[in-house]
Amino acid sequence: MARLYSGPLSAIAKPGLDDDLPGLSELPAAQQVTLGLAQADKALSRLKAFLGADAQLPTTEAVRAETEKPFPDANAIRIAIFDLHVAILLQLTAADYRLGKAYGLGRVLADTCAPVQGFETGRRQALVHHLEPHRAQVIVGWLDDLKTVLPAHASEAVADSLLLWERWAGAADLPNASPAVVNSTTRALHRCGQRWRAVLSGEKAATDVLEISDYVNAARGTVAQAGAIAWSLARRLWAPLAVALALIGVGIWLIIANHSNAQVVAGLGTIAGGLGITWRSASGSLKHLSLDSLDLFKPLWGAQIDQVVAARLTPAQQLDYRPPSEQPDDPWRRAWQSLERLIPWRRPTAQPAQTPDQRQSAD
Description:
By secondary structure, the chain is mostly helical.
């Protein structure tokens, strides 16, 4: 629908006969409108089957009537598409708010990554608008709301990738960028949007974009996070652990210093008591964290996979950008950081997506 509304509608000539057969992007506007309406009809029929026979969904008949006139009016066609879009949005939201939000998410992502037409000033203004922080936060919020019903690792990965784009755009001075930079950035964003659409729609599994080095990075991140949790648990239980270590030390000393059976039994009992204190103190926390069933490692691994998928979905220029606040002051460390980015398996992964509240507090 976004492509139909924003694309050209006036050309009616047939494609010329070239050496190669034309692709979809080379077809005249009239034929692209016909294709878009056929896709819309198919999608609406599938939605009707999903919602049930009683569901009332609009049709594309009004748009087709405008396109089939002897002298079609591009403005009248666009008005009919606009009315169809509003009707679809309202009726899907009334049927299921998740369907309405998913349709809105698809529309806003299509607008964000669409190849902008028009003059230089218009293309620049559109690019700045599509990557503004408030707009990006709205999209991230919708992705978070639909995370449960979207394919695995798709929502967080696309949200992280979009935030990387937004952070880069904030420092790229796009309002004063040259036409070449605007055009190249628009093309890169369009290609990135195609990747986002593929993983969000389930056309391609998010993990299909990963390589072996990405799984290695995810495993390192998971181990590092698990180590941080273990260290936090140890600091929390420092008093019981200290008592347990003291009892174990006394028990070992009793065994070494005396060879009688009574002293050996007493030493073993002291060691067992120390171990008992340690286990009783830690079992509650272990049970709470579900470390004994490895349930904690599943979300840790999933979060790391989200980050490496986002890194694969994001172009290198936006992925490698680091704000001045994150760059080390030491020139040697900056040089080493630049060298690490040239190594495929040491490339930085996408940062976790922040909520609007976190971003406001950071600002």
